[in-house]
Write a structure and sequence with these properties.
The chain is built from two helices and 17 strands. The chain is mostly beta strands. Strand 4 and strand 5 form a beta hairpin. The protein starts with 11 loop residues before the first strand and ends with a strand. The protein binds 6-O-phosphono-beta-D-fructofuranose. Pathway: Carbohydrate degradation; glycolysis; D-glyceraldehyde 3-phosphate and glycerone phosphate from D-glucose: step 2/4. One of its GO terms (biological process) is gluconeogenesis. One of its GO terms (cellular component) is cytoplasm.
């Protein structure tokens, strides 16, 4: 379908299979990779020892890790909870302080949590929402629906890098729990 387009110059969202066509890198995060993310850490640990569900998949299009280049990735964040707390990504800050990021929601329902110092913001993610993550803000996504995956594409500078340690010092100030058929936002750590 895309044979006339040079592979280095495009990607496409494969809606049927929920993945990034022409991606060249892939990551899968299971419950065993998400140590310390959920309030119920012991329950997460037990779930990881038993079924160890996949929480999210990331299909990436790489680029040289130099200034001026951009990376892109489709994330598929599956439905589920750990003791009523919705499945989420680990969450990170960028190493480079001047790198923003953009998310475009392709399907599902969720929240993008943004953190800077003690300040927490959130953006409701639903199809066609384009969320902007300003430079310096930590970001984590949460699937707030048990009906299906939250799917979004992200674009960010290739030099951004990911800092996972900073969230220990500047943790996400909100947590998202199941409530009837919806969600409730509770205080974080
Ligand atoms: O790196 P984390 O926090 O595990 O989350 C992965 C997410 O990060 C991103 O790189 C976007 O910041 C996405 O591609 C993916 O959703």
């Amino acid at each position: 379908m895309y044979e006339k387009i040079p592979a280095g110059f495009f990607t496409a969202f494969d809606r049927q299979n929920s993945l990034l066509y022409n991606a060249d890198d892939y990551e899968e995060r299971k419950l065993s990779d998400l140590q310390g993310c959920f309030v119920a850490e012991e329950i997460r640990h037990q779930m990881a020892l038993q079924e160890n569900k996949t929480v999210y998949r990331v299909y990436k299009k790489t680029a040289p890790l130099v200034a001026g280049e951009l990376l892109q990735a489709v994330t598929v964040l599956f439905p589920g909870t750990v003791n009523g707390e919705f499945f989420m990504t680990r969450g990170h800050y960028h190493i480079h302080p001047k790198c923003a990021e953009i998310f475009f929601c392709l399907g599902g329902r969720g929240l993008l949590l943004l953190q800077k110092g003690n300040e927490t913001k959130w953006v409701e993610m639903k199809p066609d929402v384009i969320a902007y993550i300003p430079a310096g803000w930590g970001h984590r996504t949460v699937n707030t629906s048990l009906a299906g995956p939250l799917v979004f594409i992200a674009f960010w500078p290739a030099v951004a890098g990911q800092n996972y340690q900073r969230r220990l010092k500047e943790p996400f100030g909100k947590r998202v729990f199941q409530a009837d058929r919806s969600y409730v936002i509770g205080d974080g750590d």
